[in-house]
Amino acid sequence: MEDDPANIFLLNCDVCCSFPLADMLEAHCGYGGMGTILVIKVSAESASQFGELVADPVTGELLHYAEKPETFVSDRINCGVYIFTPDIFLGIQDVSTQRKDRATMRRVSSFEALQSATKALPTDFVRLDQDILSPLAGKRKLYTYETSDFWEQIKTPGMSLRCSSLYLSQYRLTSPELLAKSDGGRTATIVGDVYIHPSAKVHPTAKIGPNVSISANARVGAGVRLIGCIILDDVELKENSIVMHSIVGWKSSIGRWSRVQGEANYTSKFGITILGEDVTVEDEVVVANCIVLPHKMLNMSVQEEIIL
């Protein structure tokens, strides 16, 4: 590997957390194993949706791992954040070699071969959870690092809003200077955790928050109300428009007295409203619980629709 790294971070792309990588690395180096997994405690009812694991409470060693088991194993789950030494590649190679050997040694009839052709995994296909974590559990090679911070899995578009609110609340503790503040009538009224990019232009009569993120070069007009939303680059929100529990895509425009809103049900298909890039919502139009693809113009109110 280039630069011969001592350790490798592996992060699932569908998780949201505080990513305590420095603390994980320190623990990982202390363990001296092949890998360290970030884990968190969840309710017993929700644990089966994830990879459940059992760890030694003293040493942190991973003793047992089961991916989405049918019966309860543990209320500790895999967060999808890992640190490995380069030895992980030897483990991957071993799995691939063993699979090739099994395929070579086992004689099957033509009928069996035809039936299993679509079921057998390719010899070079390795599943981290079933092929690496489960077999290595209890062999003093894998360890755990438990976090008490926030963690969410992003499985629906609506979870983006949930995760945005978690990061904004994290800023309040770690980087409060990034959050917007009201300034006695000279700036917009700010409620709760709000981020406003320095290049955005916000009218002082607007009211923003809680849980709002406004990106670069956005323009927020007089009397605008924003709650629980993400406003991306170059968006224009005209006078007295309202955006609630929605994501407004790049270069979109919301007309005067228009309303773009969702239900704040982050796990539902239509739980929030999403406007793609360059969507125009004309004046006095209501868009509720909709997904609108890019480059569309809405001149009439819509509810619970996908606008193609």
TrEMBL record:
Signal peptide: none annotated. Residues 3-101 form the Nucleotidyl transferase domain. SUPFAM superfamilies: Nucleotide-diphospho-sugar transferases. InterPro entries: GMPPB_C, Mannose-1P_guanyltransferase, NTP_transferase_dom, Nucleotide-diphossugar_trans. GO terms for molecular function: nucleotidyltransferase activity. Residues 190-307 form the Mannose-1-phosphate guanyltransferase C-terminal domain. It comes from the Eukaryota. Belongs to the transferase hexapeptide repeat family. This is Uncharacterized protein.
